[in-house]
UniProtKB/TrEMBL annotation, chain A:
UniProt cross-references to InterPro entries, sorted A to Z: CbtB_put (IPR012667)
Name of the protein in its database record: Cobalt transporter
Pfam families the UniProt entry points to: CbtB
Family annotation (NCBIfam families): CbtB
UniProtKB/TrEMBL annotation, chain B:
Transmembrane stretches, start-end: 76-98, 110-126, 146-164, 171-190, 202-225
Protein name: Cobalt transporter subunit CbtA
Keyword Transmembrane helix: yes
InterPro entries to which the protein is assigned, alphabetical: CbtA_put
Domain of life: Bacteria
Classification lineage: Bacteria, Pseudomonadati, Pseudomonadota, Alphaproteobacteria, Hyphomicrobiales
Keywords from the UniProt entry: Membrane, Transmembrane, Transmembrane helix
Length: 60, 232
């Protein structure tokens, strides 16, 4: 009866073991968007040029 | 590792599909306007070069030496690649964020998350920095990029606080956070755009509407697919 009420599901959902891989997945997303939308390397810019304009990323 | 793999797998499928859908939409929406604007842009650049003046050739597309895709299939191909990369990137953010809240349960829930993505990454930045067709000369690029990212982050945090915060004060703080970037103000160009107003306006509309459909696709598909791989 003593500690039955610990660990409600919402807290369990954010345990570090679960949060860490989620954060890494989000970081991977940030890296992809940085490359396609923000990197200033001329070749990357030119390849992604139309897409940058068409998605509304700031471009040149 | 399971969770990471599942998120990446779902986001890759969603991003691929959304990138392809976006490509089709762009062919009707933004691409014809980009081509039209570039004709004007090049004519202006040629004029500026003919009359040597301090700011010749507005923005340099690599000053002629850098590689750029040839018009036609090559250019189209790279646009498809870029659309898919952005699609997967945005899908990763959406799926990851929704996993923090326990994961998407239905296509409708996914669609709502897609609307949030649209508000964060299309609407909010477009308020201060309307999407620019080629030839619209903006403020310094780095300044605009910083404002764009800061606005997206502030809007995302604000929406999350509104959706998941518990007290009215949290909601109030969220509203302040969402408005703040627009009070600070986006970096503005010094010159008026060099393309006709209706072209400039049409481009803004085209980008925002295609952006809406893009995000609706990402959200809905993520909601559908996540259910198939849910055990994480």
């Amino acid at each position: 009866m003593s500690n039955v009420s610990s660990a409600p599901t919402s807290a369990a959902a954010l345990a570090p073991a679960r949060a860490l891989p989620i954060v890494f997945a989000a970081l991977l997303g940030v890296v992809l968007i940085a490359g396609s939308g923000f990197a200033s390397t001329p070749a990357l810019h030119n390849a992604a040029h139309d897409q940058r304009h068409a998605i509304g990323f700031p471009c040149h | 590792m399971h969770i990471f793999r599942n998120i990446v797998f779902v986001a890759a499928l969603v991003g691929l599909a959304a990138g392809l859908v976006l490509t089709v939409l762009q062919q009707f929406g933004t691409e014809p306007l980009i081509v039209k604007a570039e004709v004007i842009e090049k004519a202006n650049a040629a004029k500026a070069e003919a009359a040597p003046h301090e700011h010749a050739a507005g923005h340099d597309h690599g000053a002629g030496e850098e590689w750029e895709p040839a018009d036609g299939a090559e250019r189209f191909g790279w646009t498809v690649v870029a659309n898919v990369v952005s699609g997967v990137g945005f899908a990763l953010l959406l799926v990851a964020a929704s996993e923090l809240k326990g994961g998407l349960k239905s296509w409708r829930e996914g669609l709502l998350w897609g609307l949030a993505g649209f508000a964060v990454f299309t609407l909010a930045p477009s308020v201060g920095l309307p999407p620019e067709a080629p030839g619209v000369e903006g403020a310094p690029l780095m300044d605009r990029q910083i404002w764009w990212i800061a606005t997206a982050v502030a809007t995302a945090i604000g929406l999350a606080l509104i959706a998941y915060g518990r007290s009215p004060l949290t909601a109030l703080a969220a509203i302040v956070l969402i408005v703040a970037p627009h009070i600070v103000g986006a970096p503005q160009p010094a010159e008026a755009p060099a393309i006709p107003h209706d072209l400039e306006h049409g481009f803004v509309v085209a980008v925002i509407v295609t952006g809406f459909l893009f995000w609706a696709t990402i959200g809905t598909l993520a909601g559908v697919l996540r259910g198939r791989f849910a055990d994480a």
